[in-house]
Amino acid sequence: MSSTPSTFGETCGEAPLVPTIDLRPWTQGGPETRREIARTVDEALQSAGFLLVTGHGVDPGLRARVRAAAREFFLLPTAAKEPYAARVGGRGWLAQGAEANGYSEGTETPPDLKESLTFANDLPYDDPAVDAEWCAPNVWPREVPELRTAGEEYLGRMAALEKELLSLLGEALGLEPDFFSRHMAHPTYGFNINWYPGTEVVGTPRPGQFRIGPHTDFGTVTILDRQAGKGGLQIWTDTDGWTDAPYDPAALTVNIGDLMARWTGDRWRSGRHRVLPPPADVPAEELMSLVYFGECTPGTRVESVPAPVGRVAYEPVDSHVYLRGKLDSITVK
Question: What's the pTM?
Answer without folding.
Answer: 0.93
